[in-house]
Amino acid sequence: MSASGDAVGETTELLQQLIRNRCVNEGSEGSGHEARSAETLASYLAAPGAEMRRYEPVPGRTSLVLRVEGRDRKAPTLCLMGHTDVVPAEAEGWSHDPFGGEVVDGEVWGRGAIDMLGITASMAVATKRMMRSGWRPRGTFIYFAVADEEAMGTYGAEWMVNEHWDAVGCDLLVTEFGGTRLPLGSGVVLPIAAAEKGSHWTRLRASGVPGHGSMPYRTENAVVSIGEVIARIGRYRPPADLHPLWCAFVASLGVDGAERAELEDPRRLERRLEAMPLGIARTLHALTHTTFSPNIVRGGNKVNVVAESAQVDVDIRTLPEQDGESVRAMLREALGDLWPRLDIAAEGDNVATASPAQGALWDALARATMRLVPGSRVVPFMVMGATDARFFRRKGTTAYGYGLFSERVAFDEFMQMFHGRNERIDQASLGLMVELWESAAREVLA
């Protein structure tokens, strides 16, 4: 069941078209235009034995669901879910057109190649291969090409889970991301995302007293106050929190006793992070810390008026079992005497989600991986950002983020391509993923 050259070629061509569709999601209701890629995928997947339907909460924001009903209603339902929208990209700074879908030295270039059109395309090709074979699974199979992942799923997975669970409800699900080789441990170590951090985006507002900008002496300038808020948040260093998923991750790495002890000791871990290459250091820091990043600042309304109001939006990412009150406690600690002088203008509590790193789907992915990449092993991992898996986990679905990338995709480079420049994926990785999805689906739904 190895991926033939035809399968790699099909995946390449499909990925190129998805990139060229320019389904750029800027966060507004009218962006995305995922109907283009829903049409591309529907045309590609059209075949006997599958039920396909499109769902569109607002014009142009289309998701596609393909179902192959199982023979046994009591058997599990498996969903392969890939999103079709991408974040914006400016051509300046790219080596090739970000929406050209060019193949250069065995790599497909373009926005979304890694995040996550390469996976979406390979899942579609695996789906078509199974349908071509006359596959009749015992459990139900779903291929779900979803809109609006890049803007929190409002017109995509969240809407579908809330309004059309009958179409996408499943016991088991795979989406992004994982499967690139970690520069840790012995041998080839490949992460499967069994969890993701939560987010608690918070807007803090400082108030001042307006006055003439030519007389700043002893004024209460809100911009000055918010500047100190930003500085204190930037300096804040909450301690490492070595939660159970981190301990399971470390235990799976296969490192020697001394290195394991270092990774399992909060103080020694902090020193180790300082000596690591930047990409893996940032990743491991995010896996073990609540993070605070002040990213948007607004204040004042005229250059010659002392600012009466200023605010900062802080991207806060939370670990498992943390809630809004624990976040506010950390903000109070970071801001000290400034805290009582601030207003929380807005906050959103998206709690972390997790699935057990065991069971039929985990085992199927692990076995397929070991066959495709001999000598490898999978380890449980946590996504630092947000994916659509969270909506399904909250409904009781076991959901993982995965993929399978060749040795050409270095971990540091992989992480930098998410929403970055020069995004690309090699064709060998596309072939590996076609085999991975088909193997896991056939095993789980046999």
Tell me briefly what this model is.
By secondary structure, the chain is α+β, with helices and mostly antiparallel strands. Helix content is 37%, strand content 20%.
Structure description:
With 446 residues, this protein is of the alpha+beta class. Helices cover 37% and strands 20% of the residues. The protein is built from 15 helices and 17 strands. The protein has a 6-stranded mixed sheet with strand order 1-2-6-3-7-16. Strands 9, 10, 11, 12 and 13 form a 5-stranded antiparallel sheet that branches. The two termini are 15 Å apart.
Overall CATH architecture of the largest domain: 3-Layer(aba) Sandwich
Q: What is the structural class?
A: alpha+beta
Mean of residue pLDDT values: 94
Helix content: 25-40%
3D shape: globular
- Count of distinct strands: 17
Strand order of the largest sheet: 1-2-6-3-7-16
Oligomerization: single chain
CATH homologous superfamily classification of the largest domain: Zn peptidases
Assign the CATH topology of the largest domain: Aminopeptidase
- How would you sum up the major sheet? 6 strands, mixed
The first-level CATH class of the largest domain is given as Alpha Beta
Cα separation of the termini: 15 Å
Question: Strands, helices and their partners?
Answer:
Elements (H helix, E strand, L loop, with lengths): L4 H16 L14 H11 L5 E5 L7 E6 L9 E6 L19 E2 L2 E3 L3 H20 L8 E6 L10 H7 L1 H4 L3 E4 L12 E9 L1 E2 L2 E6 L14 H14 L8 H9 L4 H7 L2 H10 L2 H11 L2 E9 L9 E10 L5 H12 L6 E6 L5 E2 L5 H13 L3 E8 L5 H5 L4 E4 L9 H7 L6 E3 H18 L2
Parallel strand pairs: 3-6, 3-7, 7-16, 8-15
Antiparallel strand pairs: 1-2, 2-6, 4-5, 5-17, 8-14, 9-12, 10-12, 10-13, 11-12
Helix pairs in contact: 1-3, 1-15, 3-15, 9-10, 12-15
